[in-house]
Amino acid sequence: MSAVWLVPVDGSPAAVHAVEHVIRHAVEDAVRPQIHLVNVQAPLPADVTRFIDDGVVQDYHREAGDAALRIARARLEAAGLVYSSHVLVGETAPSIAEYARKHACTLIVMGARGLGALAGVLLGSVTVRVIHLTDLPVMVVK
C-alpha cells in the first residue's frame, strides 16, 4: 500500500513548518509518499456573490489559495518532491476530512495552529475538528 499524505496549508508559519516536516520524512523514505497540498477557502457570503460573476468569485478563490500555497510549493519543489496542489472552497475542517477520504489518503499532516482567530491556542480549532472528523491518523506538527 502506497503512502498518500495530505498536507492542508493556510499560509501560516505552522503550516510551513508542517511542510518542512513532510519534506524531511519524505526524503528519508525509500518509497516516497504521494503528497497532496490543499488550501481551503471560505465561501463568500451569498449577499456578496449574487452581485458578482461566478468566474470572478472562482478567480478570487483560486488566487487567494495559490498565494497561501506558494511557499509550500516552493519548498517541495526545492526538495525535489512531486506533489499535487488543490484549492477547495467550503468549511475548512470538513473539506479537509472529505478530501482525505475521497483521495484515499493514509495520513494528514497539519500545523498545530493556523491563521484562525484562535491562533494563540495550543491546538488550533481546525486541527481539532479534523481530528474529530476523520478516522485517519493526523500528525500535528508544532
**SSE order, one letter for each helix or strand:** EHEHHEHEHE
Oligomeric organization of the protein chains: single chain
Shape: globular
- What is the typical, i.e. mean, pLDDT? 90
Which sequence of strands runs across the widest sheet?
Answer: 3-2-1-4-5
Query: Kindly, what is the distance between the CA atoms of the first and last residues, rounded to a whole number of angstroms?
Result: 28 Å
Please report the number of helical segments: 5
> What profile does the largest beta sheet have?
5 strands, parallel
Rg on CA atoms, Å: 15 Å
User: Helices and strands: which structural class?
Assistant: alpha/beta
Percent in helix: 40-55%
Count of DSSP strands: 5
Report strand %. Answer: 15-25%
Low-confidence stretches: 117-122
Structure description:
The structure is a single chain. The chain has 142 residues and is an alpha/beta fold. It is built from five helices and five strands. It has a five-stranded parallel β-sheet, with helices on both faces. Strand 4, helix 5 (125-133) and strand 5 form a beta-alpha-beta unit. The two termini are 28 Å apart. Residues 117-122 have low confidence and may be disordered.
List keywords for this structure.
single chain, 142 residues, alpha/beta, 5 helices, 5 strands, 46% helix, globular
Q: Topology of this structure?
A:
Elements: E1 4-8, H1 13-28, E2 34-41, H2 46-49, H3 54-78, E3 83-89, H4 92-102, E4 107-111, H5 125-133, E5 138-141
Helix pairs in contact: 1-3, 4-5
Question: Can I get a quick summary?
Answer:
The protein is α/β, with parallel strands linked by helices and 142 residues long.
